[in-house]
Amino acid sequence: MTQPTILITGASRGLGAATARAAARLGAHVVLSARSAAELEAVAAAIVQEGGQATAVVGDVGNLAHCERMIAATIAATGRLDTLVNNAGIIQPIAPIAAAKASDWEALMRVNLIGPVQLTRLALPHLRASRGRVIHVSSGAAVAPIAGWGAYCASKAALNHFSRVLAVEEPEIVSLTFRPGVVDTAMQAVIRVAGREGMPEAEYGRFVAMHHEGRLLPPELPARALAALALFAPREWSGDFVQWDDARVQVLKKETS
Ligand SMILES: NC(=O)c1ccc[n+]([C@@H]2O[C@H](COP(=O)([O-])OP(=O)(O)OC[C@H]3O[C@@H](n4cnc5c(N)ncnc54)[C@H](OP(=O)(O)O)[C@@H]3O)[C@@H](O)[C@H]2O)c1
User: Which pTM value belongs to this model?
Assistant: First the structure.
C-alpha cells in the first residue's frame, strides 16, 4: 500500500502535535504546519526519532500565500496528499457580543474559518486524486452556545456546515468535523486567564473546576481518534460531526491498530 500523506495545521503543540505523532505511528508521512518554527521542528524531530516520517512547513493559516505554500510543500515532499486536518484554531476574543471588537472577530474568523476553507479549496485537486479526506477540528461549542465565546461558537458552527456542503459537493472525498472533548492544552489555559473577564462567573467557573479536578482530557486520547479518522474514516461517514469517543470511532481504532 502507498504510504499516505497527511497535512496537519496547528501541529506545533496541543491536539495537533499529538495527532501528528499518532498519525506517524500509524504509518503516515506527516506534514506539520504552524507559525512557531522552533516548536514545529521539535515535534517533527521527535517523530523522526521514533522512526516516523515528518516534514515541517512554517505558516499562518490566516494568510492565503502561506496556505498555498503549505500545499506546495506537501506535494514537493511526497507527491501526494491523502488527508488535510484543519486543526489550527484560536479562542480569542473571549468577550460578550456587546463588547467584542469587529477586528477581533475578523482575526478569529480568518484562522478558524477562512483559513480552513481556503486550504480545503487548494487541497481539493490532490484529495480528489487520492480519494482522500478532510477532517475539520470543530468543538462542542459549534452546537452549544457558551456566553463570552460568540466568535468561537459562530466559527465552529460555520465550519460544521461548510463540511456538510463539501460532503455533498465532493462525493469522491470524505469531509468530517471532529469534536475532541475538553482537552488539556494551551487553549484551555487561555480560557482560564481571559475567561475571568469575558465570561459569566458560573460558566468560567465550570472550566476552572474541570482543570482543578483533573477532568481535562490528555491530548493523546482524542488525538488517537483523530489520527484513525484521518487515515481510515469510511466514505459513508462524510458530512458527519464525530465525537472523539463515538462508538464507531472506537471500533475504527481497534480495527486499524
Ligand atoms: N482544547 C480544547 O478543549 C478544545 C476543545 C474543542 C476544540 N478544540 C479545537 O482543537 C484545535 C486545537 O486546539 P488546541 O486545544 O490544541 O489549542 P492550542 O494548544 O492553542 O494549539 C493551537 C494550534 O494552532 C496553531 N495556530 C494558532 N493560530 C494559527 C495560525 N494563525 N496559523 C497557523 N497555526 C495557528 C498554534 O500554533 P502557532 O501558535 O505556532 O501558530 C497551535 O499549534 C482547535 O481548532 C480548537 O478550537 C480544542
Answer: 0.98
